[in-house]
């Protein structure tokens, strides 16, 4: 049986995919990438991402306000998000990409924290999982998730923290996103974390067009390379490749309630 993958984090509404959706999805399909989850970063992309999911069977939508774009998010954008979630659009599978970031210039961290809390409450209200961004904020994010428990939990995407930080999220019921970082030999800490976490806690992702894999530096990342992230993970794990593939796919279907 050929292996099937879900890219649980791909910004398919950005170039180089815009205007080339069918060709990009064909390449992904040839690599076994059956489903792709597309999170938003700003409110002005909600309609576009929902239309992509409507028009293309492999695509599923997540709606959220990303912390890197904090200057673009206000009460009006939060109200837009609330209205879209309340309308229960088909193929909406999560609230995301949301989270915290202390790596950026002028993080406006108090505003970030209030925005995160508001979006976690919306996820709880609408019984949706969350797709979480975290840079230099893992401990603060875990504390926020303890304060504002989301029943469906979610995934900490593009994880590059310590094993103990990953385990803290897993204890709270969250998955950990495995991306192209593990393809770099120098990423020893992240590679060790992904080797040691339980398979039941891992999700496959690309973050395309960001986070290119080793060998593709300077090129846009692509959803078909989820298959190469999988190969890199297989080199780090003791389990047989088929067992790893089945677990990753089961985890994605479970968290996002994807069709089997």
UniProtKB/TrEMBL annotation:
Gene3D superfamilies: Metal-dependent hydrolases (3.20.20.140). Belongs to the metallo-dependent hydrolases superfamily. TatD-type hydrolase family. Keywords: Hydrolase. This is TatD family hydrolase. Pfam families: TatD_DNase. InterPro entries: DNase_TatD-rel_CS, Metal_Hydrolase, TatD-like. PANTHER family: D-AMINOACYL-TRNA DEACYLASE (PTHR46124), HYDROLASE (PTHR46124:SF3). One of its GO terms (molecular function) is hydrolase activity.
């Amino acid at each position: 049986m050929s292996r099937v993958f879900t890219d649980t984090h791909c910004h398919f509404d950005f170039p180089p995919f815009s205007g080339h959706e069918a060709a990009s999805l064909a390449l992904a399909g040839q690599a076994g990438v059956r489903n792709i989850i597309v999170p938003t970063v700003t409110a002005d992309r909600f309609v576009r991402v929902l239309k992509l999911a409507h028009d293309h069977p492999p695509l599923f939508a997540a709606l959220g306000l990303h912390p890197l774009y904090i200057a673009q998010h206000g009460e009006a954008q939060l109200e837009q998000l609330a209205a879209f979630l309340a309308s229960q659009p088909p193929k909406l599978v999560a609230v995301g990409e949301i989270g915290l970031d202390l790596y950026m210039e002028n993080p406006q961290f108090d505003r970030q924290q209030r925005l995160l809390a508001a979006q976690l409450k919306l996820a709880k209200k609408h019984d949706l999982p969350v797709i979480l961004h975290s840079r230099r904020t893992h401990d603060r994010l875990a504390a926020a998730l303890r304060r504002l428990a989301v029943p469906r939990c979610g995934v900490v995407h593009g994880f590059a923290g310590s094993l103990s930080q990953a385990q803290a999220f897993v204890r709270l019921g969250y998955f950990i996103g495995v991306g192209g970082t593990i393809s770099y030999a120098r990423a020893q800490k992240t590679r060790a974390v992904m080797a040691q976490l339980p398979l039941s806690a891992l999700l496959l992702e690309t973050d395309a067009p960001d986070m290119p894999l080793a060998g593709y530096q300077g090129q846009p990342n692509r959803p078909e390379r989820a298959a190469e992230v999988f190969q890199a993970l297989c080199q780090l794990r003791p389990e047989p490749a088929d067992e790893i593939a089945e677990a990753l796919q089961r985890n994605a279907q479970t968290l996002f309630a994807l069709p089997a």
